[in-house]
UniProtKB/TrEMBL annotation:
Pfam families named among the record's database cross-references: Fer2 (PF00111), Fer2_2 (PF01799)
Source organism per UniProt: Paroceanicella profunda
Keyword Zinc-finger: no
Keywords: 2Fe-2S, Iron, Iron-sulfur, Metal-binding, Oxidoreductase
Protein's recorded name: (2Fe-2S)-binding protein
Amino acid sequence: MVNLNVNGRSVEIDISPDTPLLWALRDELKLTGTRYGCGAGMCGACTVHLNGEAMFACQLRVGDIEGDTITTIEGLSPEGDHPVQKAWIAEQVPQCGYCQSGQIMRAAALLSRSPQPSRDEIVDEMSANLCRCATYSRIIRAIERAAQEG
């Protein structure tokens, strides 16, 4: 059994401690907003917050993060009104949309620690997450908008 704190609630899961957090979230807790992209920590589709930091869920073993605070896209703002989410819509960021939950989670973590990041800071931070549709300019504009309006 592994005890996790996910989106503000404590959950106990009968799962091997070696299981990646990604699969615990998707398969056991049915929180499918966190996406599987590569499984190797190379794409960012599985980005969640671990104690407020953007992390790749595919690279975190559940046994190593017991007692830590995990936030998924579902827990970022249950109403979908986080400043980053609103800016994403306003800037029409998504094309296919597959990477967007990971992009939003990374952007939200950036803004929580740096409320007015420079364009270079945004580009540097967001370089950890890939977008196959190449909507990078819209992603940057959305983060700048969220910083202004947030």
